[in-house]
Design goal:
Layout: H1 6-19, H2 21-27, H3 39-54, H4 62-71, H5 81-92, H6 97-127, H7 136-148, H8 168-177, H9 190-195, E1 205-210, H10 216-229, E2 234-238, H11 243-255, H12 264-269, H13 276-289, E3 294-298, H14 304-319, E4 331-335, H15 342-346, H16 352-370, E5 374-379, H17 383-386, H18 397-402, E6 405-408
Parallel strand pairs: 1-5, 1-6, 2-3, 2-4, 4-5
């Protein structure tokens, strides 16, 4: 297995030795002892690290490295003349300061490739335990978890703290020249967008709570359609309704402002076709909606891990993930947060509110990981009939802790 670059490793070490702490701290966030495949290089890096983290003004030379090796209990390593020669060659190796982080990123990526290789070897062992009774999603999920868990390992960009207002003037000029109506993705409900801070922002979990049968799904479908009509892909994860159910609702909703308006009942019974005008109108609407980037998946009865897997696959296959591991513009509508089945609770030692909290934590981490907004619906308890406070949320306080905003959806009082 050739997943190493000796020249890149030597360049990083030579750069740190030549330029000192400035070079070391430029790569310290992406390089560690395990980034080096040659034992000599790994030992040299460990010695340099000790020197510079003890005193970042020190000059690096052969005597200082040998002294550091002694403190680390590695002095015997350099008793070998070949190792001393290698150390001398590293100190003389020519490298430009601007290239050090690039070489550091390269050996870090190779390190991750080695870790991934080892991880997949372990995954192969897990596949040998498959008995054939497991759902296909679980079988696919073994490989998916190995891949997606590794995508956040590398950060080869400069993460040094910056002056907070250092580029404020440039930012303000850019905003003035590239104005937008609002920062987040519009839902089609301007007052709601305004109330939550300017639409659905990246990395936010937006919670809407309602009592049973108030219309959570209808407003979720409406918002999803509005967003998709702007060209932004939407994934509607549905715990209760089938695709046909939502097509009936969506068709009726799309026809609402047309002269050939059809009801949900007329569409699902086919009676809309009794009126030829309505029939033509509905078929024309179907053509208009055909290519709308509005995706639906019924997840009723699916384990929560399966649901996360569906979301990840959709991002990878439909939305697209950029080179930084973040998703392109999209929205996930989750209707609604609840336990799928009693068996799911029985498999854990957690109480119901703890499991709901775990699910909310996972959604929160997911939207931050991929920098996408999630519109999450929840049930309100009986307090939601008369009260308009966070304690009306049913199930878990963690829902309130981790959401970006919380909205109560209910009928207007007189």
């Amino acid at each position: 297995m050739v997943l190493s670059d000796a020249a890149a490793e030597r360049a990083v070490l030579a750069g740190i030795c030549k330029y000192g702490s400035e070079a070391y701290f430029d790569v310290a966030d992406i390089v560690d002892d395990g980034s080096f495949t040659i034992d000599s290089n790994s030992v040299i890096f460990a010695c340099i690290k000790r020197l510079l983290e003890d005193d970042d003004t020190r000059k690096i030379d052969v005597p200082s490295i040998l002294s550091s090796a002694k403190e680390l209990g590695l002095s015997d390593f350099f008793n070998n003349n070949n190792e001393l020669s290698h150390l001398g060659a590293v100190l003389k190796f020519p490298v430009l300061f601007d290239n050090i982080r690039k070489f550091g990123a390269k050996i870090r990526k190779l390190q991750i490739a080695r870790l991934m290789y080892d991880q997949l070897e372990q995954t192969k062992d897990q596949y040998l335990q498959i008995k054939g009774d497991e759902p296909i999603s679980k079988i696919l999920g073994l490989a998916e978890e190995s891949i997606f868990d590794f995508t956040s390992l590398l950060n080869d960009h400069d993460d040094a703290p910056e002056l907070l207002f250092g580029d404020l003037e440039e930012y303000l000029i850019d905003r003035a020249e590239n104005r937008v109506d609002q920062i987040g993705i519009p839902t089609g409900f301007p007052k709601f967008d305004f109330a939550i801070g300017g639409g659905l922002r990246k990395g936010s979990v937006n919670v809407i709570g309602a009592r049973t049968k108030v219309g959570k799904s209808l407003i979720g479908l409406n918002m999803g359609k509005n967003i998709a009509e702007s060209g932004i892909p939407v994934l509607y994860l549905d715990t209760e309704m089938t695709k046909k159910d939502q097509q009936n609702r969506g068709g009726a909703m799309a026809s609402f402002n047309t002269s050939g308006k059809s009801s949900i009942n007329e569409i699902e019974t086919g009676k809309y076709a009794d009126d030829n005008f309505k029939k033509v109108n509905m078929l024309e609407l179907a053509q208009q909606l055909k290519d709308l980037p509005f995706y639906h998946k019924n997840i009723g009865g699916r384990a929560f891990e399966d649901q996360l897997s569906i979301m990840r696959r959709w991002l990878a296959k439909v939305v697209g993930i950029n080179e930084e591991g973040k998703a392109n513009d999209c929205v996930i509508v989750y209707d609604y947060l609840k336990l799928m089945e009693a068996a799911e609770l029985a498999k854990t030692d957690m109480k119901e509110f703890q499991l709901l909290g775990f699910m909310m934590t996972s959604l929160h981490n997911f939207c931050l990981r991929y920098e996408i907004p999630i519109l999450n619906f929840i049930q309100l308890n009986r307090d939601g009939i008369s009260k308009e406070s966070t304690d009306a949320a049913s199930g878990s306080d963690r829902i309130m802790w981790l959401c970006s905003n919380f909205t109560i959806y209910k009928e207007k009082s007189d």
